[in-house]
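User: Batch of two.

Assistant: Item 1 of 2:
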Amino acid sequence: MAANRILYCFAVVAAAAFYFASSLWVSWMLLVLVAALPWISLLFSLPAILTTRVEAALPTSTEENEAVNLHIHLRLPRFLPTPEVRMRLNLRTRDTMTDLRFLSRLSRTDGVLSVPTSPCGYLAPELRKGRVYDYLGLWAIPVKAPTMPVMAILPAAVAPDPMPNLEQILNQQLRPKNGGYSEIHDHRPYRPGDPVKGIHWKLSLKSDELIVREPMETIRRSVVLAVRTPRGPAARAKTLGSLRYLSSWLVDHSVDHTVLWMDGEEVVRAEIHAEDDVIAALTGACLVPETSRALPAHLPVKADWLCCIGEQGAEK
């Protein structure tokens, strides 16, 4: 509010000049009034200044290149006039450290600010150096800035190149089930100790020996997708897009699996059973900084089928 302060200085100079140039008693009253004006404004503005709160909302995740808005508004009692609030908005991404914008003329109504959603990765908005002014714009008092979560920018699904052999995962193997009911059965000759209720009498009558109906169960394979830390925008879009493609394909074919990635010095593990788990894992992988260490050679999980996603990815 530099302009307001400059205008007030001119008003003080004009009132002082009028006082010294005139012998009228009203000149003295005018000078006192102009001198006391900032304090009067502060006194009337204090209720609004002390109760004003800045609120902001941003989605925790979004698709790449999708239109997303940052919603900012002021919250204070309805009977108080809205004071002037100014803040700095810092938009930090994986590739751009700072994108400063100056926000002013915030109101009670929802203010909409478009934010970038490209390239994929994350966007960390930071509101800082907030100031709330009195009604004349002469006093500036700090106001607490709200904390907003980091927004993950999800990539589109991209088929990896080369494409791993996914069909082999669907080749299910069966094994005898110890007790219980199963919709899948196998038939074998009766052995001493088998329960009588398990005998298949119709098949037994057609053959020369007793036939037993044996329940079978599917051997569940442990499937792991290991994500290498992507370096650079192009590698990030390709790596995370391949993760989304493979993980969604496995979910569509009812294959539970595990996704591994590095976050700093720690190996993060996510169990995937549904599409919501895919989005949650993809969100976590998007938030990983490029300074994270590479995946260790010996992963802390056993896998019947392992696919490394990223540079020099390999299928085992």
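Item 2 of 2:
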Amino acid sequence: MQTNIINGKEIANQLLTTAAEKMAAAGKPVGLAVVIVGENAASQVYVRNKVNACAKTGISSTRYDLPETLSEAELLAQIHALNADDSVHGILVQLPLPKHIDAEKVLETIAVEKDVDGFHTTHMGRLVADLPSLRPCTPAGCMLLLQSTGVNLAGANAVVVGRSHIVGKPMAIMLINAGATVTVCNSKTKDLAAVCRNADVLVAAVGRANFITKDMIKPGAIVIDVGINRLEDGSITGDVDFAGAQGIAGAITPVPGGVGPMTIAMLVHNTLSAADIVLT
């Protein structure tokens, strides 16, 4: 069996091109505030990529690089100021935050209409109810990748490995809303391999390099690899044994070049939506 490689970078670039066209047609300034606390190396890379994507589409992004020693009260005050700033349409607080700061409290402080990450409980509640909202970027991007394969999710068996608030849970809800029969797995799932082998659609979001092996993949399944793991030699790999999946999976996302670019494209999409610029 030939395994189709799902080119997330190409699809994301198409989305960014559309976003730039819509921005130009709208003729209005759109502002994104990106808040980063501390010097986390991975966070610095993610933020740089997000700022670059905004620049490509015409969004004006402003970075707020804050020290690791910043107090929670000082961070909340910064967010309140951005909430009140009419030139800012979207606010993104890069995770993780230092341990002395309550990330949940910070995310809930962002004004709902400016929460372009889609993490606020209001957005999550509307997602569960299948109502319009700003969707969490990574799972929303995954849904577009699935759409690109032409798969009919209605009635499909979907397995999500990982139950985080950022990816796993919203991913499962989006699949449910699309009509799939969904199983959400975690580290305590009994006979995980057997559960995965029943999946027509398998989403790996556990953060463990090559955790999903070829014996866990149903022949012909569509595999979405959300994981980004850095190995000792400095290379990047996903949660799925990509080489082992070749010839078994019907389609798979690579790492890098799969889900990552889509996450950034969906951030741009959400920022324009927050500014009342419709992309579709």
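The mean pLDDT is 95.
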